[in-house]
Prior knowledge:
The structure holds two protein chains of two kinds. By secondary structure, chain A is of the alpha+beta class. Helix content of chain A is about 30%, strand content about 20%. A five-stranded mixed β-sheet of chain A has the order 2-1-5-3-4. Chain A is globular, with a radius of gyration of 23 Å. In chain A, about 60% of the residues are buried. Mean pLDDT of chain A is about 90; it is low at about 235-245 and about 505-510. By secondary structure, chain B is of the alpha+beta class. The longest helix of chain B is centred in the C-terminal third of the chain and has 28 residues, at about 515-540. The chains are: A alpha+beta, B alpha+beta. The structure holds flavin-adenine dinucleotide and FE2/S2 (inorganic) cluster (2 copies).
Amino acid sequence: MNRFHFWVNDRLIEVEDEPPTTTLLHFLRERLRLTGTKEGCAEGDCGACTVVYLDATGPLGPRFRAINSCLVLLPMMRDRRVYTVEGLSSGDALHPAQQALLNHFGSQCGFCTPGVVMSMFEATYRLDLDADFKLEDQMCGNLCRCTGYRPIREAVAEVAGTRPRDRFLEMLQQAKADPPCSEDPLGSYETSHGSFYAPCSFEALFDLLSNEPRASFVCGGTDVGLAVTMHAGGRPPGTSREAGSESSLPCLVSLEDLPGMKKLQKSEAGFVFGASLPLTDLEEATATDLPPVSRMLRYFAARQIKHRGTIGGNLCNASPIGDLAPVLLALGATCILRDRARRREVPIEDFFVDYRETALAEGEILEAIRIPHIPGDGRAASYKVSKRRELDISSVSASFFVRTDANEKVTEARLAYGGMAATPARAKLAEATLLGKRWSTSTVEAAAKALDSDFEPIDDLRASAWYRRTVAANLLRGFFLETREERLPRLSARPSGTIEPESPRTDVEG
Amino acid sequence: MIGKNLSHDSATRHVTGQARYIDDLPEPRDLLHALPLASAHAHARILHIDVDAALDVPGVLAVLTEADIPGENACSPVGWGEPLFAEGVVHCVGQYIGVVIGESVAACRAGLSAVRVEYEPLPAILDVHAAIEKESYFGEPAVLSRGDVDAELERAPLRFSGEVDTGGQDHFYLETQAALAVPGENGTMHVFSSTQHPSEVQEKIADILNVGRHLIVVTCPRMGGAFGGKESQAAQPAAMVALAASQTGRPVKIRYDRKTDMCQTGKRHPYHSKFEAGADKDGRLLALKVESFADTGWSPDLSRAIISRTLFHLDNAYFIPALRFTGRIARTNNVSHTAFRGFGGPQGVIVIEEILSRLAELLRVDPAAVRRLNYYGDAPRGMSPFGQRLKDVRATRIHDSLIDSSGYRGRREEIERFNRESSWTKRGIGFSPVKFGISFTKKEYNQAGAYILVYADGTVQLNHGGTEMGQGLHTKMLAIAAHTLGVPLDRIRMMDTATDKVPNTSATAASSGSDLNGEAVRRACEKLRERLRPVAAWLLGIVPDEGDGLVFEDGEIWLPGNPAARTTFQEVAKAAYDARVQLSATGYYRTPGIHFDPSAGVGNPFHYFAYGAAVTEIEVNGLTGEYRIRRADILHDVGDSLVPSIDKGQVEGAYVQGVGWLTMEELVWDEMGRLLTHGASTYNVPAIGDAPVDFRVSLLPDAGQEGVVYKSKAVGEPPFMLGISAIVALRHAIGAFSSTPSQVELRLPATPEAVLRAVDMARGNPAPAATKA
Lengths: 510, 773
Ligand SMILES: Cc1cc2nc3c(=O)[nH]c(=O)nc-3n(C[C@H](O)[C@H](O)[C@H](O)COP(=O)(O)OP(=O)(O)OC[C@H]3O[C@@H](n4cnc5c(N)ncnc54)[C@H](O)[C@@H]3O)c2cc1C
Ligand code: FES
Ligand code: FES
């Protein structure tokens, strides 16, 4: 097949022989001439390109997802309903999100506005925006250089969760998960510029892999999309948006539609999360049971990225500053890998082999991750420190798990860091100093000192080695303080999300 | 219509996606695209440019360089020192060498990467400190002085000195630089440009093409933000496409991607300043010597005017009896730094605010109280360093009012209590004022024109010389026109800013857009109204004398006290047409009474001053250096606000941008002079969570400004400097980590890392010297 269709503002759009690496943004602006959606950065970091799509495939039910169209490859929208800023009003009647922004004088130059409107549009239909920090999370992916955000904050607070009875709500309520497998189990889109497959059975996937040596995987595409746009953006100055990427990514294989890959399972043994589960779903699913996960995700990119970004993409990317890795290391997660012949389960530590290298063999995928329950005598929390709290890459991230016995002696400790070494890593020496000792200030101090021998962090444009080192130790100190009252500090209780060593007004000695 | 909250005139189009920016305009037939070819070296001789391989790329039409320029190879706002394309030597990474033209953006990219430029590297000066060491400057120092500063310093009971360094700032307007040139008949050219200064773009293009300016029309529909970054530096991309269009005879468009924009355009000047201050025991400044050095980059651009504005604002709102301010623009091999909201003013104001913060720490007193002691006031404390007598100084009034309304004193006590009880989280509260001079320091820019057309159906087209970049200028102009003519807003159409409507316009900059253009619009509307008055009187059958009492309002014209005497603007317009009364008018305004003699350092450079103040409360995490603004209160003087909703938006946006400059926005260059923070992923402008959670902005009541259109006041730039209150608050919070009151050492920008260093220092735990570049 060299064609597929999708809907834009409820209009059926036939796509034919468009390169599979064409971004949704490019297609909207250059082909459909829907120029309301803007490009501000082409790297998922400003939100000017935000559009919304209706997704019924997730385990938590149908929802609108605000996404960065600059990073979405067009075939990922196959069969989906996409809404842009042009599609919200009905005749002269503005959508409540648009009206609220207007009423609060929320646009100045107007260039961020279409994206802001689309994030607010999603908020209009969300029922869980019940706290200020959640509103900030909803909007932090939309940079505005003009307004200072006060009117945007007020406008989104006004519409959030109002769910007007309109055609969008109807669409949302009628949405059904797609039938498991269509007539073409390969979900193929083959063009003269390259191919894109979205297999909906493992058999089809593995058949394809054995025939297609040039295949590369993609899931949410936030990293792969970035590679495409940065390539086109002249990052190594070079080839084109349309033409250049075809040579580097001739055959993309999406893991999004494989059965069970978005699963969310809780049992006696722990939790299993499918590798293709969007990070927003993971964040929501872990808010009460696994606060270290959701707390890290609060300061992970922005909602638009988390709606597309997945667990699998985050781990398989094996970035030294991938933020999920430290959490999974601390919580003792395992990775479930699968190829044609078998499944195997490897501890997360063994998954990261080297700088940007994983234990995945040729033709093998990450199918899911398993996270054990946090035992009642365990303490755990995650932290991320960056120049800007929201929508920024970690200078240092950390996740800690410490278990103590009845005498407060440490029986188990996993201290995991990102940004401190070439791979996300545990601080083995520091852990060793904790084991068998009483969980106390002096023990923590000894461990904090030992961190110096665990890591040789580097200077870069985000932070100096001194800062990384100091913060790494301080986060451990803060963890000790934070978990004195609450073993699994939850985001909701600490809305700044970053470390809060003391709740205001309590007297704590340093 | 004046003084009412109004939506931005494009607001409905903004929220529906109908507002068009350059890249959204319908593309003309046969459109070509262009991308700039730029230097990879900070300083190098160009040995050879090989374009053959580029020309072989399918779809590439040409690579134009300086040799292809028919007129002058010049693109400087001050008329010297900046060619459009490099001539033999490149002076910074990102300096334009040429432009690649192709059938698609993709072809241009491929072409660009196929061009081979051979360089012979030369030694480069990469920051202001290196420039000072090498004595690399443009021109002579600018100086303002009064009294015998050395003697007064000698005599002062308290003397202290120090340095203040501030970083650059990328404009990060959401819409990157863009232009579209469409060639017409007979050598004419229509250029659509995202520019604050259409007339200058027109001038540069005419000179480059070697034609009269009358052949070039430049239109600016609107900008997706500018902040000064499109004052002088929108001219280059526009000139490139105009040149390309004239060479190929086809329309040509350029739009920078974010990286190109960040790497190739100038930013706010990074500064290094040194000071020596003398004060009395109460904290009253007696004498101050400041030397400021601006990293200008490779070409002068607007830097001379920028450094003068720095000197004009080193006093901020304070009377300093004896002083000497010296400013130098250092020539470096960086991009040419340029206008940015405040135009050098913030780099001056931050110095004096730092001085007062440090003075308060030395004296162990409330920094707000020290500020209050030092304000300008009645004679003899009413004389500026440049000999302009200050009238109607509003600093103390604003100070007292804001200290009260923000609950500053009580909150300061509350915070100190909190800080005693909390060991790792500390809070701080900071107050800072601003006084900002309004007028262009370049005298001839202080003029403006408007052109208004009334049609026989009573509808109106409004043209003026200012551009819309989000600041709401068009909305204010509409309000003035609606009010003065007495027609409803929806009967007036704001036209795109274009050089064929109003000639020889000034940049929309220096916060002066609404003062200058507003008065021009008001005068034009008044002319028209007075022409229509006798027509209305005739139509209503009243005697001309009674016509003087006619009220024009909201589309109707009536005589108070005479219910029968009522008609509509529409009918009067029709009657005027029938009676052959001219229905178009121009308006013109020039600011009276301003002059300045730079060699003597005296004059009246400003028409008036704008005032404001802010109180910021911040919380600092002592483990990571992270912080968060909990609350900000602002009281700002905009005169009698033309449109309060717009003015408030300007104040809020400027404050957050000012906070960004001083906190998280950090530009990092490598040792080759290449910008490393060249994208949204590496350069952090404030996101929603960085803005104050609780944000209370009020406009000063009863603040009418005589001599300005409808007694309003300029607003664009002054509140930018209110972001400094966040630094004052940070210093307060950081100081609380110290067991004994002491000087806080906080580097700017105050990133979490800089704050953590300062916290560690305060805790008696100094970090090793920064290893970071
Ligand atoms: C603006 C922006 C901000 C970001 N911020 C953060 C952040 O704060 N913290 C952070 O950690 N990351 C961040 N990222 C990185 C990225 O979003 C995440 O890593 C995300 O989880 C990637 O998921 P994806 O599904 O989009 O990956 P994709 O782009 O689809 O894939 C990434 C890589 O993983 C491989 N892959 C994906 N799934 C599988 C699988 N199941 N089996 C085998 N291989 C697989 C792909 O082949 C590809 O090489 C950011 C990215 C952007 C663009
Ligand atoms: S263009 Fe900036 S996020 Fe897509
Ligand atoms: S209104 Fe200009 S960027 Fe938001």
